[in-house]
Amino acid sequence: MRVLVVDDHPVTRGGVVAGLAPEFTAFEADSIESASKSVAADSPQVVLVDLQLGDENGVDLIQALAERHPGVRILVLSQAPLADVVQAIRAGAHGYVGKSASTADLRAAVQAVIDGPVVPPELAARLVAEFRQDSSLTAREQDVLRALARGFDNREIADDLAISVRTVNRHLESIRDKLGTRRRSELMRIARERHSG
Asked: What would be an example GO MF term here (predicted)?
């Protein structure tokens, strides 16, 4: 099986390539441009992508590969926060393995991603939470969460959305119930992860 390893750190790339040998034929790329060229020239079945590629974002590569090469299986190999991994899954990645994985676990993930998704427990929990969050919050609750992400207090949220502070409080209570958290700081963290940018 042919595997492309995309990482901007030469030592990391070399270690992953060495760990995949001799079971897999591995190629290396250090940028979106070199990865795109390698996919065209080497026809890998699996592409391992780090999400932090220097000044570039691995999610951009994942999205391009998913659009231009839908038959290629994409596995995120990164130490990025789970929120970034979820974004990569949404962009078209088929799974995730952390850089702290053993060589045996990495090989198993590369083999497994050919047949289906590779979703470790911590990512599965996050994806379920994202799904519940997406499907259970009303449009107005999403508006309140967006305002919370911008650091607004309840009065500012009320002014921004042209509703009363009491209504904001009711929305926040509903959001807390649906997301399973009572602390405002945790709500703000969730809001920022979901509505950054």
From this structure: DNA binding
Which value, to the nearest 10 degrees, does the dihedral of the CA atoms of residues 73, 68, 194, 196 take?
130
Partners of 47 in the β-ladder: 4, 74
The number of helices, as runs of H, and strands, as runs of E, in the chain is 10, 7
Query: What residues make up the domain containing 146?
Result: 137-194
The answer to whether residue 74 sits within a structural domain is yes
Go through 167-183 and write b for each residue having 16 or more CB atoms within 10 A of its CB, e for each that does not.
Answer: bbeebbebbeeebeeee
> Which tokens is 31 given?
């940028």
CB 5 within 8 Å of CB 48: yes
pLDDT digits (tens, 9 = 90+) for 118-163: 887 777 777 766 666 555 788 899 899 889 988 899 999 999 999 9
Distance CA 16, CA 144 (A): 44
Tell me the residue ranges of DSSP E strands in 41-192: 46-49, 52-53, 56-57, 73-78, 95-98
pLDDT digits over 101-116, tens only?
A: 999 999 999 999 999 8
Both 57 and 145 in one domain: the answer is no
CATH number at residue 190: 1.10.10.10
Nearest 10 degrees: CA dihedral of 49, 54, 57, 58?
Answer: 0
pTM: predicted TM-score of the whole model, two decimal places: 0.66
